[in-house]
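Quick one: co-fold with pyridoxal-5'-phosphate.
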Amino acid sequence: MVGSVGNGLADLANGAVRVNGAGKAAALAEPLPMELEQPEAVAAAMAGEGAGKREIVMGRNVHTSCFAVKEPDADDEETGEREATMASVLALYRRSLVERTKHHLGYPYNLDFDYGALAQLQHFSINNLGDPFIESNYGVHSRQFEVGVLDWFARLWGLEKDEYWGYITNCGTEGNLHGILVGREVFPDGILYASRESHYSVFKAARMYRMECVKIDTLMSGEIDCADFQRKILQNRDKPAIINVNIGTTVKGAVDDLDLVIKTLEESGFKDRFYIHCDGALFGLMIPFVKKAPKVSFKKPIGSVSVSGHKFVGCPMPCGIQITRLEHINALSSNVEYLASRDATIMGSRNGHAPIFLWYTLNRKGYRGFQKEVQKCLRNAHYLKDRLRESGIGAMLNELSSTVVFERPKDEEFVRRWQLACEGNIAHVVVMPSVNIDKLDYFLNELVEKRATWYQDGISRPPCIAKDVGVENCLCGLHK
Ligand SMILES: *Cc1c(COP(=O)(O)O)cnc(C)c1O
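Sure, here it is.
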């Protein structure tokens, strides 16, 4: 997308920072003032980069959107000017966050939370260095909370306290890096198998660990195609198999059939010669609460499960939960004397605040709270899919998922405004607890209205998405 930013900058550059009342920012239907729509513009102005027109290209030109660090002037302390400038930058930034949060639909982040009670902790440098189960010499940690959270998740996945090992990671990616590393340590000559629609962090792990990696085809739903899986493992009978199983793929929210993956392995002569890592970054904490969904459980022969903490759970900083079998960790770890700790994590220093946020949410919501939220998300996702179809827009929703896939909106400005994630001809909305019916209606009405103008000339047409979501879900000219 190419946009230009001009108006409003002169005011800002002159130090006349306009701040609108909260009521105005909340009036959603109104066009937003420049500084709210374009935080980059504010940034440029604050950085003293003048009031000229500036092109912003998504995904590039990152340097046009930074808040420059300026050396303090000698007399700043007396005039207080520096503090004032910084305060106004922060105030504007906060406003743009409020605005951006309101129009967020494309990423699977639950933005609905209140952690006010934890504000008192921001004065502490809480760091869970090393292994959660072994004391280190650094005392300002939150292991008490971390282990409590891990116990909760281990129980959810069907492992007893003395059977599991795990830690709070910095994100879902770190969980995948860890799970695949454990698999590789258990089977050093294993081949990694993952469906084409697996998250890119899985293939990154393969590159980092220099593992042989085989991509498996997917069904139209986005699930792993077990017929192709069987063909490919049978070509490598002599090597153990390490498999990434998706509990919700990033783009289509597809849940791989874990039971069928296990059956395929066992029937193909891989009994006791495979390791399964379940990537539950997106849907790992939703699936236990979906009635018809297959169980993800360590009662089955799986090796590890990871979940992102900032997605469905709703943690304001990136984090994740990684659970594996204790027996596997001995294969991975070696002693690091300096920490007086076992070294089985990917990272060294770890965010000690994140486990407290997770603990806080788990305590507040509990199983029943999550269950309610999951049901609400699935209901709202169905609502969105139905309304898109009624409006003549092709859409797909997997049975166990709250990710609604539909035709990519033609206007990139619209895509950016709603922060939709797109791939080829498709876009998606991930319905999280923070996405309610009002927000969906607001989005739908705007989409339908804009779409009428995109295609009014009768020459350009909505894209065909049959190859992405199947003929039955496509409503393009050919497939109506
Ligand atoms: C988001 C996601 C990841 C990565 O999680 P981060 O927390 O963003 O690192 C991995 N796998 C899937 C399926 C995801 O949706």
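If it helps, The pocket of pyridoxal-5'-phosphate is lined by residues 171-173, 176, 199, 201, 246, 248-250, 279, 281-282, 308, 318, 320 (CB under 6 Å).
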